[in-house]
Amino acid sequence: MHASNRILILDDQECVGITIRQMAEKIGLIAESTTCPNKFLHDAAHEPLSCLILDLIMPEVSGDQIIRELARTHSQTPLVLMSGGDRRVLWAAERSAKEHGLNVLGALEKPFFLKNLKKIFDRLPKKLRVDPPAEAFNAVVLDAEIIEQGIRNNEFFTVYQPKVDSSTQSLVGFEVLLRWFNPHIGVIAPDVFISAAEQFGLIDELTEYMFEGALRWFSQHSKYSGKKHLNIALNISPLSLDNPDLFERLTERCDFYCVKPQAVTLELTETHAMRDAVTSLDMLLSLRLKGFKLSIDDFGTGYSSLKQLVRLPFTELKIDKSFIGIATASREARHVIKTIIDMARALHLTTVAEGVESKEVLNLLQIYGCDQVQGYFIEKPLSGADMDRWLQQRRKNQEVIRTQLIQTLKSNGDSRFQDLTSVTALVTRILNVEYATISLLAGNTVTCTASVGFKPDPQDISETFCKYVVSREDAVIINSHDDSANGYQLPQSWGKDYHFYGGYPLYSKTGLLLGSLCALHNKPISIDEAGISALKQAAKLIELLIAESVKGAAGKALLKSQFERVDRVLDIIKPLGYQATLLVIKPHWQEPPHSLRWQLEKLELVLRKSCRRSDIVIRLSEREYAVLLVHNAGDGIEDIIMERVGKKLNQLQKTFDSWCFLGVDFATTKESADYSAQSLMAQLSPY
């Protein structure tokens, strides 16, 4: 097989392959691009080629797999590696390819210019190279006319990188990034064209162009932009702070596209934001008063002082990717990251880490308490159309998880159902409402479980109160007799009219929206902040029970989760003035009978049947149970115990063998004491 002047490019983005092909053709090479790894490997093994160009980050197959396959076939065709991710990964891949015996010509960090590619190709044998005409490189020099023409011809386009909650990976928003593909030059790096736009006084025009495209895309996704916590981040040049008219127009475009300023974060490079604190304070304060959020981009790389950071009204701090990229390898970088996060938390700033490329880095940021992350480990920047597909696939995955969750809850038997029912029963009791239900999403349907007061059938979400809660992702309280009902069309949920609705969203441990806890009443009632807090805490308890149902627990993990359940219930009742008594019941046998398991199951059954539905029955260990009895302050404790469980336990004792007896200890919450499981356990005394 003899060499030729033909090169082969593998990149999952067709437009990138076309761009590199056009660049190669300018310097006299015959180029072909493909998005198919199998075709790339086939041609690499069977076709005469002068060079292979390989993108390391692809959805179907990773670059290191391609490298290993090329090494397996003993390829000696010159290889060029390229990547838009972490440069350290690119360098590591280059070393790996060389150690596999491949003929590595060089590495390119995206985006790059024709001159960068030319420098690599200069290493090819001279007989394979053709010197490009001088005008090919002159086109790379940017001037005002080229930028203005690019704006007129819509050569600039926006891409979107998702930002997620670091602990749950739930979607919190997108960062908008501007890209430029010039048909004559190719891909032009943002730092190059932004610098040129600032130099030629075109940065505001370019910024407005980005605003328009980003807000249009964001507004078309009302199911996302309408959510309370979803946000879109736009980069602004520090030079634009001198132009208040630009931000007036931005506010107008937000109004036009029905995007609230509170859903928009303006990212400002730290270096420039801090140079003129007085001017910055005036403009940034004005933006904050309009409702926009403000972020310091690339924090840790500029010249700011802590005094200036405190003075300026930022809401978010982005940790520069230069620290994130070396976090796992550099102890100093880890110290810097942790210090920044701790400082931001003390200043009540949201922290965002950019450039997260691995699970190890994400785990580290979770430990340090970073709020949000973005990077190739989550997803690379995508075009609007590709982001639509990403969101659609994400929704499909979420629906599968929700469906599996409902099936898991159904298969876990009566005890788990009774645990959930005890929470809804507690809600009806402490809020004085007639009905309560756990509404779980299943496509466009709401499936209700553990309902108290009625047994609703699955219903279309559009016909339920649940739709308001899941769309807002926050507490929703509606009374038909006051202003809280404004803007809501009160649904006739499950065939009935209600005059009070209270709801709080439910999430999985990974941040997936599962549905809502709903409380309903057939008459208008008032609910104060303590009641809303109780509803929230009840939702948190349900989330805990759902997580236990999916994962399960045993041993110390079981005891910890049960104590957490008790703590959650105490958090619910304390603000409302209720008290609770904890009973710990433990059978004692001189010699465990062969029917031990049956005896314990019988004990649990008696406890669940004899207690009120709002009481909490938990298993502390293999042979130890506990019951949390919720009651009014001042009630006679011994009377409550005897009324609810004492009589039944006495009857049960008679059915056990003579050499077995039930030990019962109890403790009651006190207003002056800590409302916690640990506190109650420390106060236990024999009954």
TrEMBL record:
<dbReference type="InterPro" id="IPR050706">
    <property type="entry name" value="Cyclic-di-GMP_PDE-like"/>
</dbReference>
<protein>
    <recommendedName>
        <fullName>EAL domain-containing protein (Putative c-di-GMP-specific phosphodiesterase class I)</fullName>
    </recommendedName>
</protein>
<dbReference type="Pfam" id="PF01590">
    <property type="entry name" value="GAF"/>
</dbReference>
<dbReference type="InterPro" id="IPR011006">
    <property type="entry name" value="CheY-like_superfamily"/>
</dbReference>
<keyword id="KW-0418">Kinase</keyword>
<feature type="domain" description="EAL">
    <location>
        <begin position="140"/>
        <end position="395"/>
    </location>
</feature>
<dbReference type="GO" id="GO:0016301">
    <property type="term" value="F:kinase activity"/>
</dbReference>
<dbReference type="InterPro" id="IPR035919">
    <property type="entry name" value="EAL_sf"/>
</dbReference>
<dbReference type="Pfam" id="PF00563">
    <property type="entry name" value="EAL"/>
</dbReference>
<dbReference type="InterPro" id="IPR001789">
    <property type="entry name" value="Sig_transdc_resp-reg_receiver"/>
</dbReference>
<feature type="modified residue" description="4-aspartylphosphate">
    <location>
        <position position="55"/>
    </location>
</feature>
<dbReference type="GO" id="GO:0000160">
    <property type="term" value="P:phosphorelay signal transduction system"/>
</dbReference>
<feature type="domain" description="Response regulatory">
    <location>
        <begin position="6"/>
        <end position="125"/>
    </location>
</feature>
<dbReference type="Pfam" id="PF00072">
    <property type="entry name" value="Response_reg"/>
</dbReference>
<keyword id="KW-0597">Phosphoprotein</keyword>
<dbReference type="GO" id="GO:0071111">
    <property type="term" value="F:cyclic-guanylate-specific phosphodiesterase activity"/>
</dbReference>
<dbReference type="InterPro" id="IPR001633">
    <property type="entry name" value="EAL_dom"/>
</dbReference>
<dbReference type="InterPro" id="IPR029016">
    <property type="entry name" value="GAF-like_dom_sf"/>
</dbReference>
<dbReference type="InterPro" id="IPR003018">
    <property type="entry name" value="GAF"/>
</dbReference>
<keyword id="KW-0808">Transferase</keyword>
